[in-house]
Structures are given as C-alpha cells and as structure tokens.
C-alpha cells in the first residue's frame, strides 16, 4: 500500500463535484438499500409528463433513466454541481435551475405530477405540497438518522442531539402536517467499509456536512490511527441509514 502522504495527496486532489461515487471503486464499499431507488424512479419518469428533481447533484440519478418526461426540471444549489448537471442533462432536454437553500422553490403552484429527490439537503414539505398537482406524488430516498456516525463521531466525539435528526417517522408526520398523505415509508441500515485512508479523506471532502471543519491537517492524528488500522487489515466499518418515502397530494 502507498504511504499515508501519497494516499491523502491523491484524495485531496480528486474531483468531488457531482453525486457519483465511482472514485471509491475498490477502495470502499457501501451496501445498497433493498428497494433500488434509481430503478423505481426510472419507472415513474417513463410514465409522467411534468417532473421536478430536487438537489440533483450532478444529475447522475436522473440520467440513469432511459426515458425522461417531456418536461423534466432539476434543481441544484451548488454551482459546480449545477454546471455538471447542465453538461450531463442539457443534451437530453432537461432544465437545470440553480436555487438557494432555504428559499421557496421558483415554480408556480401545482406545476408537477411528481417531485423526487435522492438525499435532499433539507425537505420543505409545504413547498413540495404547493408545487405538486392534485394527486401528484413526492417520491424520494432520504438519508436517515445517525448515518455514517461511526466515522463522524470518531472525529468529532459523541453527538447525541445530532443522532436524533432525520427521523423517518418525524419526517412522515411533517409531510402529513403539510397536507400530504404518506403512502409508503421503508427504512434500511446499510454496511459501509473503507479500505484505505484516501477513501476516508475523499468522502469527508465530498460530504462536507459530515465533519464541517474537516481538513487533513486538523484531523491528522485521528486519520493516522485509522490508516494504521487499515494497513493492519482492518477496514473501517460504518453504517448508512436510508428511508424511502412516498407522499401524495
């Protein structure tokens, strides 16, 4: 295995835009939820006319669908991701709209048959209700509570209050309060394994909300301990949590 310094330098130089994780191939593994969100989404996109995808990243999930609606709109708040989404989805006729987190969705009332998202940053249920047409559906995969917290708390220490966030039943209750009817709610806990320190550095650079003050210099001591464990043949194990939610207006 290459040195700590070489692995870290490679991870710090690597591209982290978009929502693809191909850079981790062979260096980390994450079990997937059993429902197959991209496949389920593709089935719906092939049958509808007006669809909105929120927090699309680089458009990777939408682009997996063989058939897209006549009107397909995606939003993204990080300019490098929005640029990537335009390059990927623009040739397929998709409109990419840059938004600001926390602001209302820039669309008219009752504009979409389906609003979808994979791992939205923050769910604004009243806004989702507003832009859905009558009988329209919100269909999404959300990050669940305490996801990847084995790694996050390894660096930051215990975070009991943060562990309570993203509760799927709480989110379902919020959707109902906003006027939606929750038709399905499924949860999953999936194993993650990291095989070298470069993979850890890369994921912390990409998922900046995990450890907001992350830098290699600041956490070098903790990273070197993890590096020594992985060099001894012990991958670092964490668990992601996900929930699938379908809610209809």
Automatic annotation (TrEMBL):
Range of residues in the leader sequence: none
Keywords: Methyltransferase, Transferase
Domain Methyltransferase type: 52-138
Alphabetical list of Pfam families matching this protein: Methyltransf_11
GO annotation terms (biological process): methylation
GO molecular function terms noted in the UniProt entry: S-adenosylmethionine-dependent methyltransferase activity
Methyltransferase keyword on record: yes
Taxonomic superkingdom: Bacteria
InterPro entries: 23S_rRNA_MeTrnsfrase_RlmA (IPR052939), Methyltransf_11 (IPR013216), SAM-dependent_MTases_sf (IPR029063)
Keyword Methyltransferase included in the entry's annotation: yes
Protein name (database record): Methyltransferase domain-containing protein
Organism the protein comes from: Phycicoccus endophyticus
Lineage, uppermost ranks: Bacteria, Bacillati, Actinomycetota, Actinomycetes, Micrococcales
């Amino acid at each position: 295995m290459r040195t700590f310094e070489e692995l870290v330098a490679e991870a710090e130089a690597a591209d982290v835009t978009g929502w693809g994780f191909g850079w981790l191939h062979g260096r980390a593994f994450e079990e997937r939820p059993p429902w197959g969100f991209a496949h389920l989404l593709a089935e719906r996109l092939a049958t509808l006319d007006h669809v909105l995808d929120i927090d699309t990243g680089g458009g990777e999930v939408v682009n997996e669908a063989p058939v897209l609606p006549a009107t397909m709109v995606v939003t993204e708040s990080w300019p490098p991701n929005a640029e990537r989404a335009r390059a990927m989805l623009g040739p397929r006729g998709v409109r990419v709209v840059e938004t600001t987190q926390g602001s209302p969705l820039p669309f008219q009332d009752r504009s979409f048959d389906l609003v979808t998202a994979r791992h939205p940053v923050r769910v604004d249920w009243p806004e989702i209700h507003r832009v859905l047409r009558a009988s329209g559906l919100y269909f999404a995969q959300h990050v669940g509570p305490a996801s990847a917290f084995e790694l996050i708390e390894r660096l930051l220490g215990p975070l009991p209050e943060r562990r309570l966030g993203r509760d799927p039943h709480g989110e379902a209750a919020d959707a109902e309060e906003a006027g939606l009817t929750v038709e399905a709610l499924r949860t999953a806990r999936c194993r993650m394994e990291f095989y070298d320190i470069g993979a850890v550095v890369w994921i912390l650079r990409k998922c900046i909300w995990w450890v907001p003050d992350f830098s290699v210099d600041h956490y070098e001591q903790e990273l070197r301990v993890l590096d020594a464990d992985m060099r001894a043949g012990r991958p670092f194990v964490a668990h992601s949590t996900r929930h699938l939610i379908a809610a209809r207006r």
